[in-house]
Design goal:
Blueprint lengths: L3 E4 L2 E2 L5 H12 L4 E9 L4 E8 L1 H18 L15 E10 L3 H19 L3 E5 L10 H5 L6 H6 L19 E5 L4 E7 L4 H11 L4 E2 L20 E2 L6 E8 L4 E8 L7 H14 L4 E7 L4 H14 L8 H12 L9 H4 L1 H5 L12 H9 L7 H24 L8 H36 L6 H42 L5 H26 L5 H34 L2
Parallel strand pairs: 5-7, 6-7
Antiparallel strand pairs: 1-4, 1-5, 2-4, 2-5, 3-4, 8-12, 8-13, 9-10, 11-12
């Protein structure tokens, strides 16, 4: 498994497309990285870029982009709504998969050292990469912004972690760090007042607002024994925020960084701002996500708003995302395209889900063609997905049935389980064909010498083992779906009992069809112990599926007879 880092550099240019394109092309032209998102802002005069790749390649791409930004952006002429101190203002590295935060910090230092040494740009390290107390917080490092940087660099306390302690008038300074996944999230208000937006931001952000004696706006600031201002904490943990007016949209916004969405989620932040805004006579009209967002955050939001409506959570991914978008007004200012905004969707390889991208006609035509794949394994997985989909449909109908309102949550849980199984079976539709292709590719490997022959045979063995495991997984998931289907025949909406019955027949077909693939792929496999074990388990699973299907169909017949 590859180690993957995400990098989210913020460049102090959001208006000149030519400059933005030159910077981002440095990233796009670096091997081993994928440019995921480019989000320019006219009012902020800032562009947030997101890319992912293997660690060394990410560091290389980031360095090239920082270098190009230093060549093209003159900070002495920069104006924008967002706080900033450099042409590349901040450049965090974020662990995505198979890499620890400790390793990520080392790569941040590698990048920071190179920027300081080769580009003569002062570099500060923040968050998990902070090298001195007080530098964990980006706002502390950036205080005074570009205009105060020359004086700041003369202060020994603010000597850069890397690079010269000299004012670089053109490039300013850059902040490099390592942090957890951060969501940049702006909430739109029906006001043009920055003061009111700031008041709401102070209500919710973790830091809160300065404590004052007497009047909350004009009273004397309360200070601690060290002379530092005392703050009244806000209501949301792991949230940074300010209010501003965006001329481009003609509205004020609460601009937030959600630094740990497992502590404060997007939907929790949205609802809390709605509550605080309402208390100040202001209404939330929508919101926007700047950059990318994890899929789970969108699914959690969709489920949150469905739960508030007491509606079934067992709907498709696309439906959950749609609910989240509409509930939080994520499409108010511009269209929200999940394929461009959700990080997992951006990383998907369409070649690995070729069949799932087909419509029904195309899938049938491809199956009927002279190509050996998709074959029985893929079809078995698809039949299984249709079977559990029918059971899930009955669960959702039952959850929303008039007069059954008090039972909505019970059926919602069944529907959620059905959706999970359906999604896994759908993935196996393509995975069965991919397993077949792995075997074909292994057989085409060279075998001109002993080393090549050994590599080829190992590849064949690995691919064959995988081609046995995939249809067996189909058997397991299809049989598991029969629990959902049976429950819906027993207690679900009686008007849809035959739909659940058809689902049981599909599930049994999927188990039996997938087992045929297990058996033929196991023929000749050299690991006899593995083959004997999986065939033995397959026989038992098939027997159970046949028995369960007969039981469910008999229940359906009995319910039809007694209507």
């Amino acid at each position: 498994m590859k180690k993957l880092l995400e990098c989210v550099p913020n460049f102090s240019e959001g208006r000149d497309k030519v400059i933005i394109d030159q910077i981002t092309s440095e990233i796009g032209n670096t091997d081993g990285v994928k440019l995921l998102d480019v989000e320019p802002g006219k009012a902020t005069n800032r562009t947030v870029v997101t890319f992912v790749g293997t660690p060394d390649e990410v560091v290389e791409a980031a360095f090239r982009a920082i270098k190009k930004a230093g060549e093209l952006i003159d900070m002495s002429k920069h104006k924008g709504e967002h706080p900033r101190m450099g042409a590349t203002d901040v450049c965090p590295l974020v662990p995505v998969s198979n890499i620890s935060m400790e390793e990520t910090v080392k790569y941040a230092y590698k990048l920071a050292e190179r920027v300081g040494k080769e580009l003569n740009i002062p570099v500060y390290c923040y968050e998990n990469a902070a090298m001195k107390p007080g530098r964990e917080n980006l706002a502390n490092i950036r205080s005074g912004e570009y205009e105060g940087l020359a004086a700041k660099l003369k202060d020994p306390e603010w000597k850069p972690d890397y690079g010269p302690a000299e004012f670089n008038a053109r490039s300013g300074a850059t902040v490099v760090g390592a942090r957890d996944f951060l969501v940049a999230y702006n909430i739109n208000l029906n006001t043009t007042s920055t003061r009111r937006a700031n008041a709401i931001a102070f209500d919710v952000r973790e830091k809160g607002r300065v404590k004052r004696e007497g009047h909350p706006l004009t009273g004397k600031i309360v200070k601690d024994e060290k002379g530092n201002p005392v703050y009244i904490p806000g209501t949301l943990k792991a949230v940074k925020g300010i209010g501003w007016y965006i001329e481009e949209y003609g509205v004020a916004q609460i601009s937030m960084n959600l630094t740990n969405i497992s502590v404060t989620s997007i939907h929790e932040a949205f609802d809390e701002v709605c509550k605080k805004a309402d208390g100040r006579g202001v209404r939330v009209s929508g919101s926007e996500i700047v950059g990318l967002v994890p899929l789970k955050a969108m699914l959690d939001a969709g489920k949150y708003f469905l739960r508030k409506q007491k509606r079934s959570l067992g709907v498709s991914e696309s439906e959950l995302i749609k609910i989240a978008v509409k509930s939080m007004g994520l499409d108010e200012l511009k269209p929200f395209n999940p394929e461009e905004k959700i990080i997992e969707y951006m990383l998907e390889d369409d070649d690995t889900k070729k069949l799932l991208n087909m419509n029904l006609q195309e899938f049938a035509d491809e199956t009927a063609s002279e190509s050996p794949a998709p074959g029985g394994g893929s079809v078995a997985a698809y039949v299984g997905s249709l079977g559990v989909s029918l059971g899930t449909m009955v669960a959702n109908l039952s959850s929303h049935k008039r007069g059954w309102d008090e039972h909505w949550e019970k059926y919602s849980k069944w529907a959620e389980k059905g959706q999970q199984i359906k999604d896994e079976l759908l993935k196996l539709v393509d995975e069965d064909t991919n397993a077949f292709n792995k075997i074909m590719n292994a057989f085409t490997m060279p075998k001109s010498n002993d080393k090549e022959k050994k590599l080829r045979q190992n590849a064949i063995n690995d691919a064959t083992k995988y081609a046995i495991e995939v249809p067996y997984k189909v058997m397991e998931k299809a049989f598991e779906s029969m629990e959902v289907i049976k429950a819906m025949v027993e207690t679900g909406n009686p008007n849809s009992v035959t739909d659940a019955g058809v689902g049981a027949i599909c599930a049994r077909t999927a188990v039996m069809g997938a087992f045929l693939n297990v058996k033929i792929n196991a023929q000749g496999f050299e690991n006899k112990k593995f083959v004997d074990n999986i065939i033995k388990k397959g026989v038992e699973l098939e027997k159970k599926a046949i028995k369960k299907e007969k039981e469910i169909v008999a229940m359906v017949e009995n319910k039809i007879k007694n209507r």
